[in-house]
Design goal:
- There is one protein chain.
- The protein is of the alpha/beta class.
- The chain has a single domain, classed as TIM Barrel.
- It has helices spanning about 5-15, 25-40, 50-55, 55-70, 85-95, 110-125, 155-165, 190-200, 215-220, 235-245, 255-270, 275-300, and strands at about 20, 45-50, 75-80, 100, 130-135, 140, 145, 165-170, 205, 245-250.
- The strands form 2 sheets. An 8-stranded parallel barrel has the order 1-2-3-4-5-8-9-10, surrounded by 9 helices. Strands 6-7 form a two-stranded antiparallel ribbon.
- Helix 5 (about 85-95) packs parallel to helix 6 and helix 9 (about 215-220) packs parallel to helix 11 (about 255-270).
- It starts with a helix and ends in a 6-residue tail after the last helix.
- The structure holds zinc ion.
- Zinc ion binds next to loops.
Amino acid sequence: MKNLLYYYKKALKSGFALGAFNFSNLETLKAIASACEKSKSPAIIAVSESALNYMGDEFIVENVKIIKNHCKAPLFLHLDHGKSFDVCKKAVDLGFDSIMIDASSSPFEENVSLTKKVCDYAHNKGIFVEGELGQLAGIEDNVSVEENHFTNPQKAKEFVKLTNVDSLAVAIGTSHGAYKYQGESKLRFDILVQIEKNLPRFPLVLHGASSVNKEYVDIINNNGGNIKNAKGVSEELTKMAVQMHNVVKINIDTDLRMAFTAGIRKSMNENPENFDQRKYCLLGQKYVEDVVSHKIKYLLNSENKI
Ligand SMILES: [Zn+2]
């Protein structure tokens, strides 16, 4: 099978990006795989450290193996926001395709030294490593940051050289979670351009890129939920980052959680007599598949790229 680097290079050349879709249950994983297969799109399936703990290491690895074997689109298992050498090592040893070491909350030198240590270990086993420089505001799983610290373009070049990472997550104004902006969403394309000048043709990653679709927020709120003032990044802005710049991986988690919750709430509300979880999970699964298909087609441009 073609590896992740092949698709990063292809994405850089042809102006598309791979979706990195987070999952923490089987329904979401199946929905992602189904959407990718129908759209003939490669994708990254991502688990955070807390998702690993929630589902169990072996459960994830074995189920992903089965899903990968049956899916006609290439899926790459990725560790999202590994915070320590030990958790990154564990993911490498479990057979992940790619890992992220996130030491972005540490001072530059510490970030470099931990990222390099992880790269040395992972590269030895042929596993790709994503590092992060700069910090995104927001809350997601075990990552919580109060304000944005944009990536320093000069430091980005130094960081890549010193650590040997394969891709770099940059902070240009996206943020984690469902409450990203109070006003209009903004991305610092000027910083992105500077980073690209310093790191030509180098794969860049945007985290916290959910658009928080109003349609699903409304379904949740109309069916007993209470989600107020949720706001994501406009898809037009993220699309520009993909089409005009070197962004080859876009992380999407919140949008899938919203869709799954919307499906379950709607199904439960409309069928109060039902207690068969397969019925309400099915609508959640369908909504997740709809979102992934939409992202592939309109945001990532990764349709028919396998
Ligand atoms: Zn993230």
